[in-house]
TrEMBL record, chain A:
Listed InterPro entries: Aminotransferase_I/II_large (IPR004839), Asp_trans (IPR000796), NHTrfase_class1_PyrdxlP-BS (IPR004838), PyrdxlP-dep_Trfase (IPR015424), PyrdxlP-dep_Trfase_major (IPR015421), PyrdxlP-dep_Trfase_small (IPR015422)
Name this protein carries in UniProt: Aspartate aminotransferase
One record GO biological process: L-aspartate catabolic process
Highest rank taxon of the organism: Eukaryota
EC number(s) recorded for this UniProt protein: 2.6.1.1
PROSITE patterns in the cross-refs: AA_TRANSFER_CLASS_1
Cofactor entry: pyridoxal 5'-phosphate
Species the sequence originates in: Oncorhynchus kisutch
Gene3D superfamilies xref list: Aspartate Aminotransferase, domain 1, Type I PLP-dependent aspartate aminotransferase-like (Major domain)
Automatic annotation (TrEMBL), chain B:
Any one cellular-component term (Gene Ontology): cytosol
Designated name of the protein: Aspartate aminotransferase
Keywords: Amino-acid biosynthesis, Aminotransferase, Cytoplasm, Pyridoxal phosphate, Transferase
Cofactor: pyridoxal 5'-phosphate
The protein's Enzyme Commission number: 2.6.1.1
Molecular function terms from GO: L-aspartate:2-oxoglutarate aminotransferase activity; L-cysteine transaminase activity; pyridoxal phosphate binding
C-alpha cells in the first residue's frame, strides 16, 4: 500500500534557482535562432571567425605530454609542483625576492573561481580580525556570492565613474581612506572585470600607499595576465609593486583566458608570508581546507600550463600568442568606435578604446541592453558589459548598428 | 611587523599522505607500501588502463575538440552515462525522467556538492543541526566533508565488529532505529573503505526497511563500482535495490579507481528524485553551489569516460580492464590468506578472503602496525587497513612472514 508520505518529495520546498547572470546569457544566446545573433556575454576569447581558439603552444604541449606516457596517480593536495612554481614566477617575476626566500606558498586551484574560494575560506577561518571584504564597485558578479558563501561580509569602494566611463580615482581614494583597519581589499590586478578600467601606475602607487596606511589585507585577482596589454610583466606590474612596497598579499591567478585552458580549470592561489616558516604553516592549513572540497586538483590543464611555462620555445610562442589575442581585441575596440562614428553616432565612445582587456563597459543602460537583445539578438550582461572577444571584423558593423539604434 | 598570519598553527598532515611520504623516504629495499588506495600491477606500478590510453589518442587526434568551459553541471553525456552505470541502463527511475547528475571533482567533490545541498535544502533551509551518520570506521575524509559543509553533528553508526571481524548488523540496525528522524546516513555502496566488509543482500534489505520507515536520508558513496567483485552490476546491487524501494537519494560516484583516472578528478553526483519537477529545482540549486566553489568542472577526464561509456567496443574493453584489476586483488587475497594459514599464524584469517575490494582490515592493532612499519618497513594505516593492491607475487611472502612475526611478537 502506497503511504501518503511516499508521494511527497524531500525537495518540495526547494525553490527554482534564478539563472546565473553571466552564464545565463550564453544559454539564452544558444536558444536564439537569429542568424545574425552575437554573443558578447561570457569572457571566452574568440578568433576573428568567432571560433574558440586553441593556442598552438597548447597543442604542442599536449603532444609532448602524450609522448611521455605519464601515469595518472593523484597529485598532492597542493597540486603539481612544476606548475605551482612556474605559476608564482609568472606573477611575481623570476627573480622576485619572495620566491627566492621561499616566503610564498602557491597552491594549484580549480581555475580562478577555485582560487578565490580557497582564499575566501582561508581568510574566513584565519583572518578573524575582520570579516569585511571590500570589492570595487562594480566587480565580477561571482565575487560576492563566493565570499558570502565563505562567511565573509561584502562592502564596496567607489571605482567606476559612469560619467566618464573611466576610473573614479578620487572617489576610490576617499572610500579606501575610510575602510577599517585590517579589512580585506580586493584589487583587480589588470583588465578590470567588468569595466576594463585600470588605474595608471601613478594611481596604483597612491593606492598602495593609502592601503598601507590603512593597514588593509590586499587580495589581488589576476585573471587576465598578458591579456590586458599583451605584455606579461606589464600586466603584473601592480602586483609586483605592492609586494615591493611591503604588502604581504594574497593572489588568485587564472589560466583560463591567457592560455585558453578554460575547461581544464587551471589556477593558482598564493599567500605571501612573513617568512618561509610561516609559509609552511599556511600551506598546511590550505591543504586542510582543500581536502574536504575535492581532495586534490586535476592534472591535465596544470600539466599543459607547466610544460608551456617551463619550456623556453613554448613559453616564447605563448607570449606571442597572448600578444596576438590582446592585439585582436585592441583592433576590435578601434573598429567598433570607427563603425559607430560611421553610423552617425555623436556620443563620446572614447572609453571603448581607453578601456583594456576582454571587457568593455559600454555605458548602456539595462533598457538599452534589453532592446539590443530583443531586437537585434545581441547578447550581453545587463550592466552593459560586452566581451570584446566576441566581436569580429564580420560582426562589428552589425554591432555598431545595434548600439547606435538604441542610443541615438 | 606583525604578520596577519602569525597565529596560524601548523596543521597535522593528512595521515594517508604522510604514510606515503615516510615510505618514500625509507631506504630499506624490501619496503612495501600498503597505504594509499591506488591500484598497482604485479610489478608494483601504477596502471594506466589500456582503454584509457586508446581514448586519449582519440581525443588528441580530434581537432574539433577544444578547451572551452563545460556547463556548470558538467558534460551532459558524461553525467547521463555515469548515472546509467550506477543505476542500470534500464532503471525505471531514469525512464521516468527523475534522475539527474552533477559532474564533480572526483568522489570527494560529489560528496561535497551533495553535502552542501543537503545542508541548505534538505528538510527545511538550515540543516546545520541535522545529524549526519558515517560508519564506524569510515573513509577519514567523510567527517571533514560534512563538517566543512556546515553540519555540526557528524556521528558514527556501528558498523565494524572488531571481535568477530565482520559486520555489526545489530549495532547498525540499532543505530538506524534510534537515529533522529530525517538523519542523513552515508552508506558505502560496495567495497567498504576501510574494512572491505559489505552487508549481504538480505542485510541491505533490512537496512532499507528501517531507513524507509524512519524517514532517513540515503547518501551512497560509490567509489569502487566494478572493483569489488569485478562486475559492475553486482557491485551496484545495493544502490539499485534502494531505488526500487522508492527512495529519493544521492549517490556520489568516483571514477578514480575503476578508470584509474585518479588525478583527473572524475566524479558524478547522481540524484534520484520523486519526479522531474523536483529534480529540475534541485539541479538549479546545485548550479548555485557549483558556481561559488569551482564554477564548472574539468573537461578532460569526463570526456574520456563519456567516450568510453558511450562507445560499445570501448565500453566492453573497459569492463574487461576493470575485471583485470579486481581479479588481481582477489588473487592476492587468496594468496595472503593461504600463506598465513600455512605459517600457522595465530588467529583466524578468513576475513582476508571474505572482505572485498581494495582494502582489508587486517585486525592488527596500533602497536602491531607500528612494529610492521618500524621493523619491517611495511607501511599500513594505524587502523590496520592494508591496500591489497600493494601486494605482489614478489612481496607477498615477505608481507606474510612479517604479519606472522608481528602477531607472534607484539600484543
Amino acid at each position: 500500500m502506497m503511504q501518503v508520505w511516499d508521494l511527497l518529495s524531500w525537495w518540495s520546498e526547494v525553490q527554482m534557482g534564478p539563472p546565473d547572470p553571466i552564464l545565463g546569457v550564453s544559454e539564452a544566446y544558444k536558444r536564439d535562432t537569429n542568424p545574425k545573433k552575437i554573443n558578447l556575454g561570457v569572457g571566452a576569447y574568440r578568433d576573428d571567425q568567432g571560433k574558440p581558439y586553441v593556442l598552438s603552444c597548447v597543442r604542442k604541449a599536449e603532444a609532448q605530454i602524450a609522448a611521455k606516457k605519464l601515469d595518472k596517480e593523484y597529485l598532492a593536495i597542493g597540486g603539481l609542483g612544476d606548475f605551482t612554481k612556474a605559476c608564482a614566477k609568472l606573477a611575481l617575476g623570476d627573480d622576485n625576492e619572495v620566491i627566492k626566500s621561499g616566503r610564498n606558498i602557491t597552491v594549484q586551484t580549480i581555475s580562478g573561481t577555485g582560487s578565490l574560494r580557497i582564499g575566501a575560506n582561508f581568510l574566513s577561518r584565519f583572518h578573524t580580525e575582520a570579516r569585511d571584504v571590500y570589492l570595487p564597485k562594480p566587480s565580477w558578479g561571482n565575487h560576492t556570492p563566493i565570499f558570502r558563501d565563505a562567511g565573509m561580509q561584502l562592502k564596496a569602494y567607489t571605482y567606476y565613474d559612469p560619467k566618464t566611463c573611466g576610473f573614479d580615482f578620487q572617489g576610490a581614494l576617499n572610500d579606501i581612506s575610510k575602510i577599517p583597519e585590517k579589512s580585506v581589499i580586493m584589487l583587480h590586478a589588470c583588465a578590470h572585470n567588468p569595466t576594463g578600467v585600470d588605474p595608471r601606475p601613478e594611481q596604483w602607487k597612491e593606492i598602495a600607499d593609502l592601503v598601507k596606511k590603512r593597514n588593509l589585507l590586499v587580495f589581488f585577482d589576476m585573471a587576465y595576465q598578458g591579456f590586458a596589454s599583451g605584455d606579461i610583466d606589464r600586466d603584473a606590474w601592480a602586483v609586483r609593486y605592492f609586494i615591493e612596497q611591503g604588502h604581504n598579499i594574497v593572489l588568485s591567478q587564472s589560466f583560463a583566458k591567457n592560455m585558453g585552458l578554460y575547461g581544464e580549470r587551471v589556477g593558482g592561489f598564493t599567500v605571501v608570508c612573513k617568512d618561509a616558516e610561516e609559509a609552511k604553516r599556511v600551506e598546511s592549513q590550505l591543504k586542510i581546507l582543500i581536502r574536504p572540497i575535492y581532495s586534490n586538483p586535476p592534472m591535465n590543464g596544470a600539466r599543459i600550463a607547466a610544460t608551456i611555462l617551463n619550456t623556453p620555445d613554448l613559453y616564447k610562442e605563448w607570449l606571442g600568442e597572448v600578444h596576438g589575442m590582446a592585439n585582436r581585441i585592441i583592433t576590435m575596440r578601434e573598429l567598433l568606435v570607427a563603425n559607430l562614428k560611421k553610423e552617425g553616432s555623436t556620443r563620446n565612445w572614447k572609453h571603448v578604446i581607453d578601456q583594456i582587456g576582454m571587457f568593455c563597459f559600454t555605458g548602456l543602460k539595462p533598457e538599452q541592453v534589453e532592446r539590443l537583445t530583443k531586437e537585434f539578438s545581441i547578447y550581453m550582461t545587463k550592466d552593459g558589459r560586452i566581451s570584446m572577444a566576441g566581436v569580429t571584423s564580420g560582426n562589428v558593423g552589425y554591432l555598431a548598428q545595434g548600439i547606435h539604434a538604441v542610443t541615438k | 611587523i606583525m604578520s596577519l598570519f602569525g597565529e596560524v598553527p601548523q596543521a597535522t598532515p593528512v595521515a594517508v599522505f604522510k604514510l606515503s611520504n615516510d615510505f618514500k623516504e625509507d631506504a630499506n629495499p624490501k619496503k612495501v607500501n600498503l597505504g594509499v588506495g591506488a591500484y598497482r600491477t604485479d610489478e608494483g606500478q601504477p596502471w594506466v588502463l589500456p582503454v584509457v590510453k586508446k581514448v586519449e589518442k582519440i581525443i588528441v587526434a580530434d581537432n574539433s575538440l577544444n578547451h572551452e568551459y563545460l556547463a556548470i553541471l558538467g558534460l551532459p553525456e558524461f553525467r547521463s552515462s555515469a548515472s546509467k552505470i550506477a543505476l542500470g541502463e534500464d532503471s525505471p527511475a531514469i525512464q521516468e525522467n527523475r534522475v539527474g547528475a552533477v559532474q564533480c571533482l572526483g568522489g570527494t567533490g560529489a560528496l561535497k556538492m551533495g553535502a552542501e545541498f543537503l545542508r541548505r535544502w534538505y528538510n527545511g533551509n538550515d540543516n546545520t543541526k541535522t545529524p549526519v551518520y558515517v560508519s564506524a570506521p569510515t573513509w577519514e575524509n567523510h567527517n571533514a566533508v560534512f563538517a566543512n559543509a556546515g553540519f555540526e553533528d557528524v556521528r558514527p553508526y556501528k558498523y565494524w565488529d572488531a571481535e568477530k571481524r565482520g559486520l555489526d548488523l545489530d549495532g547498525f540496525l540499532g543505530d538506524l532505529e534510534s537515529a533522529p528522524k530525517h538523519s542523513i546516513f552515508v552508506l558505502h555502496a560496495c567495497a567498504h573503505n576501510p574494512t572491505g566488509t559489505d552487508p549481504t543482500h538480505v542485510e541491505w534489505m533490512q537496512v532499507a526497511e528501517v531507513m524507509k520507515r524512519r524517514k532517513l536520508f540515503v547518501f551512497f558513496d560509490s567509489a569502487y563500482q566494478g572493483f569489488a567483485s569485478g562486475c559492475l552490476d553486482k557491485d551496484a546491487w545495493a544502490v539499485r535495490y534502494f531505488v526500487t524501494q522508492g527512495f529519493e537519494m544521492f549517490c556520489a560516484q568516483s571514477f578514480s579507481k575503476n578508470f584509474g583516472l585518479y588525478n583527473e578528478r572524475v566524479g558524478n553526483l547522481t540524484i534520484v528524485a520523486r519526479d522531474s519537477d523536483n529534480l529540475k529545482r534541485v539541479l538549479s540549486q546545485m548550479e548555485k553551489i557549483v558556481r561559488v566553489t569551482w564554477s564548472n568542472p574539468p573537461s578532460q577526464g569526463a570526456r574520456l569516460v563519456a567516450i568510453t561509456l558511450n562507445t560499445p567496443e570501448l565500453f566492453a574493453e573497459w569492463k574487461d580492464n576493470v575485471k583485470t584489476m579486481a581479479d588481481r586483488v582477489l588473487l592476492m587475497r587468496a594468496s595472503l590468506q593461504a600463506k598465513l594459514q600455512a605459517l600457522e599464524t595465530p588467529g583466524t584469517w578468513d576475513h582476508i578472503t571474505q572482505q572485498i575490494g581494495m582494502f582489508s582490515f587486517t585486525g592488527l592493532n596500533p602497536k602491531q602496525v607500528e612494529y610492521m612499519i618500524k621493523e619491517r618497513s611495511i607501511y599500513l594505516m594505524a587502523s590496520g587497513r592494508i591496500n591489497m593492491c600493494g601486494l605482489t607475487t614478489k612481496n607477498i611472502d615477505y608481507v606474510a612472514e612479517s604479519i606472522h612475526e608481528t602477531v607472534v611478537n607484539v600484543q
